[in-house]
Amino acid sequence: MGPDLWPVLVAVAVVVGSLSLAITPVGRDIDLTSAALHGSTLRDVRPSRTGEVNPTLAAAVDASLARRGIAVQTNNLPLFLRDVTPALKAKQARLFQNLQAVGMSAIYRRAEPWSNYEAVRRFGPATGTFRVTMRYVLTGSRLPQASTDVGYTYTLKRGRLYLVADNDLDEAIGSNRQPWDFGRIQVVRRTNVVVIVDRGQRALALRLAEETVRSAQQVRKLWPGLLQTVPFVVAMKTPEVLTDLPATTTATATSNAAGNEPASVRPMPSSLIGNERPSGGWVVIRPGAQRSFDSAQMEHVLMHLLPVRLGDGAPRWLAEGMAEYAGKLALVRAGHSTGVARERQEISTRVLGELTRLPTGHEFTATDSYGISWLAVEQLIKLVGIKPVTEYYRQVARRGYNEAARDRLMKEYTGFTEARLVESLRSLAS
Fold it and tell me: I need a labelling partner for 74 at 20 to 30 A (CA). Which of 57, 299, 355, 393 fits?
């Protein structure tokens, strides 16, 4: 028997076999977790304040997590629920159905243990709470592997392992806030678009799916080749979906904190250690905006999905200006050209005559900053064309740069500096 085959046979044997306190030898189980989960081994896990993880419990948890990932990939609900305590089975079954509805492959890896004295008192001394990393790939998305963390509490009793709690770390690590964690969901798919809503909201999902298809086509015309291949749109009734995650851009971070934007972009964190660039992004439409969400708002937020692939180093006036520009074009196509022209004139008359600089990143709580950014981008495109502006955006978004370097790059790509663009904007007010 070749040495490469042995870990595979061990993995199969442990995954299909029953768990018991006689799961040793520990060394072989460590090999199992490394081979099955492509992640850390027991030696890599940091001890909790109460000491090292009990190796029997650790090995049992790793085997259970391996089965859990296999169950998701093979659509095997009994295997997914095999180690779940009866009181938790209904909730975990609903989670499994949601994972299947979204469509994904997943692996689960045990990370560091957490001290959880209440769980030990409740379930006994052979109990451990762990941060567990769920690495997933969304089916058909063409996105690289992403990850999220959950908190699972396990206990060994009567020779069996049981998952007895799945929410002990919700506040500590922000877990259980993914779209599949909130009740039953419904998923509508269109060509290169996925919309996730609450069960019973199919009409909303269908409308948003069609809107997203049309808006994505327009964004790709404006800026070919850089929009996420499959935008994932989440429109659920609970405002906690995908909260407590870092925003993809400074712009969305501010709007998320304010809570007044109709939609925002939330990241799918990469599973690669040290990779700060998200694997992809979710478009999240807040509950109060879902019924009235239109093409202009959709094109605006899809433009904010671009930094997932480009990077978020562009100056905010440029990022918001491009998003506003796309949204205004959508309004014109929808027959609202008179209103757009009126808004343009109002901002020009009231603001541009006294303009001395473009808005900085922390000034976007004021409405004028969005309007100024829109007119700055519109003027720049009018003077030099869309391609130089988008090429400059692409270059500066990847690395950020300081002010002097940005000005040099802006002049290289567009022939303008920020100061010269401000002069051009002031001329619109006369």
Answer: 57
Polymer length in residues for the chain: 430
**Residue burial 306-336, b: 16+ Cβ < 10 Å; e: rest:** bbbbbbbbbbbbbbbbbbbbbbbbbbeeeee
Rounded distance between C-alpha atoms, residue 400 and residue 386, angstroms: 20
For the ranges 96-100, 304-308, 413-417, the lowest mean pLDDT is seen at: 304-308
Integer CA distances (angstroms), 79 to 64, 70, 148, in order:
9, 8, 21
Q: What is the tens place of the pLDDT at every residue in 269-296?
A: 999 877 778 999 999 999 999 999 999 9
CA torsion angle 366 368 372 375 (round to 10): 130
Q: Which two tokens stand for residue 193?
A: 């678009």
- For 333, which DSSP code? H
Residues 295 and 210: their CA atoms lie apart, in Å, by 10
Q: What is the DSSP string of 17-65?
A: SPP-TT---HHHHHHHHHHHHSS--GGGSPPBTTBSPPHHHHHHHHHHH
Q: Is 23 exposed, middle or buried (0-12, 13-18, 19+ CB in 10 A)?
A: buried
What tokens appear for 250 in the block?
A: 């400074």
State pLDDT tens for residues 165-182.
999 999 888 899 999 999
